[in-house]
Amino acid sequence: MTANIPLEIVMKVFTLATRKREDAASWIRVSKRSYILFERLLYNTVVLNDEEHAFRFLQCYRLRQTHIYPLPSTIAMFFGDGIKYTTIVEILSLCRNITNLSIVSDDNDVLPDLTSLHYVLDPLPLKVLSLNIKSSLTDSSMAMANTFARLTHLEIDDAEMLRRVDMNAFPQLTHLALWPVLYNAGVNVHKVVKRLLKHATLQALVLRADGHNQCAKYLEYHGIDDRRIIIGPSRMFGWDDFGRGSMLLWQLADERADMPGPNHKKHRCFSNSTFENRLRDYMDLARVPERDVDREFVKCFVVGGSPDGAVRSGLMRSDSSDEDTEDSTDDDIDE
Predict the structure, then answer these.
(1) CA dihedral angle for residue 181, residue 182, residue 183, residue 185, rounded to 10 degrees
(2) What residues contact residue 275 under an 8 Å CB cut-off, 6+ apart?
(3) Residue 192, H or E segment
(4) What number of other Cβ atoms are within 10 A of residue 268's Cβ?
(5) pTM > 0.90: yes or no
(6) Distance separating alpha carbons of residues 239 and 102, to the nearest angstrom
(7) Nearest residue to 234 (alpha-carbon basis) of 183, 278, 280, 300
């Protein structure tokens, strides 16, 4: 007797067994049922790592529009570094059901101002937004009132952003992640943190600090002790092929905030290796050794020590008298 297994259960099983998009793309041709299953899997969460990848996705999407209606919904999307502003805008204009969006850009010419995305972000039902774009939220940016009003999770690399932005623009915000510059002329970071903690809906505040011990000691010095504060690594990790990891930062933050007490000395935190190993579990890769948060590796530039005198990038242990460095390797899962 043939068993009728619900499609949702079949999809869950195949999702767990599928580690690469290439596998899903090949299995989509097995049968009509598998077509529906893996088409949904491929389009539900989209990871675009560079301009070439994004351009191919755009071409494919346009082609499918002429043959299939409605197209499968995309609810989460990651844009990697180097994707053109026009490409980002066109894709977001087509994928109108995105609730979780992450944009990474080190080039101000690619994404010069957040307000330039206003007209494509505002119609989206965004709940989760991650911006690592080297741009600041300004008063003009706050014209995106509808976008911010819907957000529950926000990660942004503008260290001074919330010093000058009215938190009333984020009435539903429960999770916030920042890269703080603790010692910044003219900025009383401890006062900013205390103000953020007064936000009525806030459940977790992740401080992505280069120096773990430095951040912990700074908070202790200023008498800031709140279970909602989690010290996380400054290093940013991308999503895997299927977007697994898109909510990992927030999951780890919730786990720490829900603990009955601090998991490290007097504070709550997680390390690079904790984050990386969760991603490796998704991707079925071997785990890396767990590293002490007091001796985390952070990005640095190494001057000298090479025959040609070139400056090379590497990883240095933070908050330590040990000044040894390690060159970056391809085995690290990076952004």
Answers:
(1) 60
(2) 232, 233, 237, 248, 249, 252
(3) helix 189-197
(4) 25
(5) no
(6) 10
(7) 300
What is the identity of the amino acid at 215?
A: C
pLDDT in tens, 166-194: 788 899 999 999 888 777 666 788 888 89
- The amino acid present at 101, given as its one-letter code, is L
Q: Sign of torsion, CA 76 81 84 86? A: positive
CB 257 within 8 A of CB 204: yes
Angle in degrees, 0-180, between the axes of helices 189-197 and 212-221, rounded to the nearest 10: 80
In contact, 54 and 79? CB cutoff 8 Å: yes
Cα–Cα dist 298/48, whole Å: 25
Give the amino acid at 32.
K
Using CA atoms, how far apart are residues 64 and 35, in angstroms rounded to an integer?
Answer: 14
Q: In the chain, which residues have pLDDT < 70?
A: 1-3, 7, 10-12, 14-37, 68-69, 107-114, 135-145, 158-164, 184-186, 292-335
Closest CA to 119 of 100, 138, 92: 92
Contact 118, 143 (CB under 8 A): yes
Whole-angstrom distance, CA of residue 96 vs CA of residue 243: 18
